[in-house]
């Protein structure tokens, strides 16, 4: 098994995550994750998956499904510390060769610094209202 | 305005968060949150709210709605560091005096240690499949 890549910053890990998602590359995807029993992945509308094996298996099924996804990211937020970084972002996901409109997804991504660089410990994605990013609903209510 | 409480541990902050939610106490709720422009709150099915003012306004509207909630927590996970803690938990939310069954909610809660103890910087809650907690779907597929 080849050595895993080292991600010097949380941004590097996040870029690798979304690149692996678009390429449907299971090895690249799982290289982003910390090998920890307490890592958590929640796909939109799906159950909470805990641990490396369960998370790998879910990504494998998604990638084996054959849909090639294109993800555009917008409206990032970040709380950065020396050992952990918390990002949120709006994902605009489209299926290649499928023009149907997709609702945006809001994602929380958490990365932790270890001896081999930064790794993902949580990805929590859930559907967001189509017309809302940031604080838009707050703004339209007043 | 009274001094805000100090939460010596992430567990203290989390307990105060759910207690404030059940009591519909806006001041107690907002005392749990870090006063930071980058804090994020996502209610189930709702938009991403960013910043203290937007988050406070959303909680105020929920609490003003009058429904008194009871929350039972199960299946916690935790990744703890010296400066930040990442928890996930299954929330079983019921409305008092309303016997209708509620689907579980999966919540990600992130706390950061500051000079005045631990504060919440993210709450991301989304509906979970009714029959799934932990890795249950993984287990039933094989």
| CATH architecture annotation name of chain A | Roll
Rounded Rg of chain A: 15 Å
Q: What is the percent of helical residues of chain A? A: 25-40%
End-to-end C-alpha gap of chain A: 56 Å
Structural class of chain A: alpha+beta
The number of E-state strands of chain A comes to 6
Q: Can you tell me the residue ranges of chain A where pLDDT is under 50 for at least 5 consecutive residues?
A: 134-142
Task: Show the largest interface.
Answer: A-B, 45 and 45 residues
Using the coordinates above, name the CATH class of chain A.
Alpha Beta
Number of helical segments with 4 or more residues of chain A: 4
What is the mean pLDDT of chain A? Answer: 89
Beta content of chain A comes to 35-45%
Chain-wise SSE layout:
The structure is a homodimer of 142-residue chains.
Chain A: H1 10-23, H2 26-32, E1 40-42, E2 48-50, H3 52-64, E3 69-80, E4 84-95, E5 105-114, E6 117-127, H4 136-140
Parallel strand pairs in A: 1-6
Antiparallel strand pairs in A: 1-2, 3-4, 4-5, 5-6
Helix pairs in contact in A: 1-2
């Amino acid at each position: 098994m080849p050595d895993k890549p080292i991600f010097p910053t949380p941004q590097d890990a996040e870029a690798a995550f979304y690149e692996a998602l678009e390429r449907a590359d299971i090895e690249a995807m799982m290289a982003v994750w910390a090998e920890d029993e307490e890592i958590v992945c929640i796909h939109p509308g799906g159950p909470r998956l805990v641990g490396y094996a369960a998370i790998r298996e879910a990504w494998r099924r998604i990638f084996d499904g054959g849909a090639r996804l294109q993800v555009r990211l917008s409206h990032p937020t970040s709380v950065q510390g020396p050992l952990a970084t918390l990002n949120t972002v709006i994902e605009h996901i489209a299926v290649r060769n499928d023009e149907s409109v997709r609702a945006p997804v809001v994602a929380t991504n958490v990365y932790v610094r270890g001896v081999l660089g930064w790794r993902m410990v949580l990805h929590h994605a859930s559907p967001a209202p189509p017309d809302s990013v940031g604080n838009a609903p707050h703004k339209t209510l007043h």
